[in-house]
Amino acid sequence: MTDRLRVGIVGVSGYGGGELARLLAGHPNVELTYVTSGTYAGKPLSAALPGVAKRINLTCEKFDVQTAIERCDLVFLAGEAGLAMEHAPALIAAGKPVIDLSADFRLKNPAHYAQWYKSEHKAQDWIDKATYGLPELNKEAIKASKLIANPGCYPTSAALALAPLLAADLIDRKSIIIDSHSGVSGAGRSKFGLDFHFSEVNESIKPYGVAGVHRHVPEIEQSLSQVAGEPVLITFTPHLSPITRGILTTAYANLKADAGDLQALFNTYYADAPFVVILDAGQFPATKHTEGTNYCHIGMAVDTRTNRVIVISAIDNLVKGAAGQAIQNMNLSCGFDETAGLTMAAVWP
């Protein structure tokens, strides 16, 4: 197995890190050689993730940057905020590319990071060296990058839904409204509080982060502004839904011109995007259809009465919204087939 890429996961016992372990166990080009967890240090990985028993025979350790350098060719950072700021520079200096699943390097303006994350960015010299890891928008840059900021789940679903329309200058960039529904796993494995108890979540849907206060707002606007070439403002309302996995995003915008053949527009824009599925006219996504996969399903329609376009996207928040996208980024940056280890079909029913 020495010809395989040796990879490590820092923060393996969280939902994102655990999904990385599950997916990497079946990747043809890598060997998982190092996993860390403060909670499960000294215990077998199967104690933290029973689902990988007999697939991965590793022991969780406390994170040590020098150990990561010695054992890994590439490191996934799936731990708490601030971890990448502190340790990515040393890993990269030692020749170990980093894919960071936190928000540490997603925002290009450090003032925005301070505003939305209530903390000063501690590695500002590295912000411009990081590549925002949304392959459908930044594929060539990702191929050359040693520090990849894996996007958030909501920003992934929103950007993929709206990018073709903004690139074609078909919509008013200040009219965009985005409603997203996420499964409870999006809150993370260590989240506490009544809001996430089964009896509070089950059979109930509720909004949160209302009126532009969710931390993903600047990330969504940054991606969409990049595509549009001009500033984009959005109204974004996320919702907690009583499902384990999945994000369903519905985006609305005023049309500036005749939309024409939307299916053709989206299919052309995503012609080189193996994980984007454009549904036929009149068909719309469901979270069940992307569960456990790295695919994004997109459907769209025009409300001719209001002259608004409606685009709906569905992803698995833990795969295309986190671990699967991180592996897609690894594949691109390491010269593997972009789809390696990620071609699984949805869990059904």
Automatic annotation (TrEMBL):
Q: Where is the active site?
A: 153
The cross-references to InterPro entries, in alphabetical order and at most eight, read: AGPR, AGPR_AS, AGPR_dimerisation_dom, AGPR_type-1, NAD(P)-bd_dom_sf, Semialdehyde_DH_NAD-bd
Q: Which CDD domains match?
A: AGPR_1_C, AGPR_1_N
Instruction: List the pathway annotation.
Output: Amino-acid biosynthesis; L-arginine biosynthesis; N(2)-acetyl-L-ornithine from L-glutamate: step 3/4
One Pfam family matching this protein: Semialdhyde_dhC_1
Tell me, what is an example of a GO biological process annotation in this record? L-arginine biosynthetic process
Q: What is this protein called?
A: N-acetyl-gamma-glutamyl-phosphate reductase
Q: From which organism does this entry originate? A: Capsulimonas corticalis
